[in-house]
Amino acid sequence: MSEEHAQLPARPALTAESWATGYWGPTEPDLHPAVYAVRERFPDAFIDAINFRDEMTIRVERARLREVIAFLRDHPDQRYNLLTDVTAVDMVRLRDTPRFDIVVQLYSIPNRVRLRVKAGVDDGETVPSLVPIHAAANWMEREVYDMFGIVFEDHPDLRRILLADDWDEGHPLRKDYPLRGFREYVQPGFTKPAPRIRTRLRRPQ
Amino acid sequence: MGVIDDRFEKNILTTSVDTVFNWARRSSLWWLQFGLACCAIEMISASMPRFDLSERFGMLYRASPRQADLMIVAGTVTRKMAPVVRQLYDQMADPKWVVSMGSCANVGGPFDTYAVVQGVDQVIPVDVYVPGCPPLPESLYYGILELQNKVIKYETIAKKHGIDAADEDRINTREEAKLALGPRR
Amino acid sequence: MVIDFSQPTPVEISEERQLTASRREMVLNMGPQHPSTHGVLRVLLTLDGEVITSCDPNIGYLHRGVEKLGESHRYSQFVPWTDRTDYVAAPSNNLGYVLAVEKLCGIEAPERAQYWRIIMGELARIASHLVWLGTHALDIGALSISLYCFRERELILDIFEKFCGARLTTNMMEIGGFSRPIPPELPEMVRTFCQVFPGGQQDYEDILSKNPIWLSRTRGIGVIEPEVAISYGLTGACLRGSGINYDVRKAQPYLLYDRLDFEVPLGSHGDVFDRYLVRMEEMRQAIKIIEQCIDQVPTDGDLMLRGSTYTIPPHDTVLTTAEDMQRHFIWVIKGFSPPKGEVYQAIEHSKGELGYYIVSDGSPMPYRMRLRTPDFVNLQSLPYMAQGAMLADVVAMIGTIDIVLGSVDR
């Protein structure tokens, strides 16, 4: 990926109503207007742009993620105003650092085009929260925190959402967490639960 | 039943009286409206015009556990929900029965994961298990009919000898409550 | 457990509760078991008299770890778990997943299979809206509507049962099409349903749409402005009820929706009544789509893509040729290995935009399986709608978002 910010490729042309020629825009990263705009505005935060099966993914630095998303929302031509999804992927089996990838899926209602923005996060690092930009990010970031343990800065109410508030066994969607968990549920005061042939752990006597 | 409950040894008179009480009970089971997951939709379908579980069997759903005597656990019991299930079961008044509907409530179903209790019988004692994923409303009928066969044999004024897990649970709590209250005046 | 009745039980009031008591506010718990919460949803309402000052939905009581299950099972094995997320419209969930995997592998199902997928998807949409209307009306107080809706829903479940054997959790779509033949009486059943259903829908409209009680309980309640709706990421009828025209079938058509002629209804006020009207009209448009598909569907032709490593080989060649038998064995036992990469495929589910984000590392099991469910995002708007509303309207608001807790919690 070329890093010379001074020689950007030629500015791609925009059509009258929507510049999108496909569901995700042009398949060449050099011809994609959003890629061009992000690379022009954030030359130090932009890492690269990849296209797979006609889907455009932009990779940026994690510290500038909120500014990039706000820029994509407020830009008069891009207008990615619908936040479709905020999620994370634990990349520990595919690469060494950074451990997680925060994945943000965006959609532009006026232009009818989608975009994906990714940022790499390491274990223990925090990510700027997208709640000031899109209110939809609130519960999505809570779920990412619940499942992966990634903390979002400036989130108004970061607590567990899908698991119980006092869940002390870790963050389940990490790759080192077993599918069946660590403990079984024991109902206090119930003396005769039905026996199970295949148990994970022995019930305390 | 108060004074005459759990009082007499079993003989011809008590069994006849018990049969009358139990016939009344099984013909008017009031179930707790408690659907958890997909099986709840089949339970609702079963009480709707085509299958009509409620009107034909005298069953009526009640929103409050204090007014219900049958709890159909329809759906997956997660570890977050299990204390709630137990609390609802404890709030129901005796005699109470539990039907575990669907494979999630029987043994955890297709979800053998960190968050799912593998069967509601780890939390509350169960009387009838209805298999299926989800069970057809006809299967739920069969389960309710089996439960009615069980209800007709329930020992009301005769002393309870603990036929199954639910009865033992009742006996244990009843014995402890008797000890706590002191001798009968 | 020994209960000691001689001493009164000491009650500790936490500091937070003391503060709310002095502020005239009360915290009311609409607990996980409640007839109106459509499943196990817990809503903590802070009330000042009858007026709600804040609302905090607690979800997770049906979290079953479906995304983690996807990481340890093969692509073809994952289809049954997609049924159980949104269990009232199971074929739509299957459809979204199967389209995502097909996009990842770069294959496409044959035309006849695509028509049948559209038909089954639209039937699922109608089934889901019927459950929505039945439970929504039941909560607001129109008890007979629920009986009528489920009467029509039984007809749809009969069609599903004839097609794939199961009423509710259908598991009908497969990667590449359908591997089982279509029963010969099925097109006639679907045509009969299309003739019978509008009469049933007219019943609901007659009872509800001009009913003064229904109007006073749904008009002006739960208003969401268009900019707020976009900011909250709402999709589906919640967004279209506020006037924003975004339907994935029109904006980014999948399957054969660009060949079909249908309209997308839009509301104007963004209240509960508008969303009700939008969903009723969506049911009518779904019948229109099904009728067009039944007329256009080819009566013979492949239902499953042949000759691809990613699809199950067809029955006749498996039993007669050696290489297809080997391929079948390997496909079932080991699975197929799609290319490395990631895809996001969105479909228009009855509740909104259902998206599957699959990350593949080239192995037969997905590396990450993310379900972007519409209810999870739509439910975030409940605190916004309930702010300053009356307690009795919270039930109408929960009903209008149209949540299914299996889809919210996954």
Short description:
The complex is a heterotrimer of chains A (205), B (185) and C (410). Chain A has 205 residues and is of the alpha/beta class. Chain A has 3 helices and 7 strands.
Q: Helix proportion of residues of chain C, in percent?
A: 40-55%
CATH topology of the domain at 30-157 in chain B: Rossmann fold
Residue-averaged pLDDT of chain C: 89
Residue share in helices of chain B?
A: 40-55%
Structural class of chain C: mainly alpha
Q: Which strand order spans the largest sheet of chain C, edge to edge or round the barrel?
A: 1-2-3
- The largest beta-sheet of chain B arranges its strands as 2-1-3-4-5
Rg of chain B computed from alpha carbons, rounded to a whole number of angstroms: 17 Å
Would you kindly provide a written description of the structure presented here, covering whatever features stand out?
The complex is a heterotrimer of chains A (205), B (185) and C (410). Chain A has three helices and seven strands, in the order αββαββββαβ. Chain A is of the alpha/beta class and 205 residues long. In chain A, the strands form two sheets. Chain A has a five-stranded mixed sheet with strand order 1-2-5-4-3. The longest helix of chain A is centred in the last third of the chain and has 12 residues. Chain A starts with 32 loop residues before the first helix and ends in a 52-residue tail after the last strand. The N terminus of chain A is likely disordered. In chain B, α2 crosses α6. The model of chain B has no long low-confidence stretch (mean pLDDT 82). Chain B has 185 residues and is an alpha/beta fold. Chain B is globular and about 45 Å long. In chain B, strands 2-1-3-4-5 form a five-stranded parallel sheet. In chain B, β3, α4 and β4 form a beta-alpha-beta unit. The longest helix of chain B is centred in the C-terminal third of the chain and has 17 residues. Chain B has seven helices and five strands; from the N terminus they run αβααββαβαβαα. Chain C is mostly helical. Chain C folds into two domains: 37 residues, no CATH class; 344 residues, Orthogonal Bundle (Cytochrome-c3 Hydrogenase, chain B). Chain C is built from 18 helices and six strands. In chain C, a hairpin with a 7-residue loop joins β5 and β6. Chain C is globular, with a radius of gyration of 24 Å. Chains in contact: A-B, A-C, B-C. The interface between A and C is large, with 40 and 44 residues.
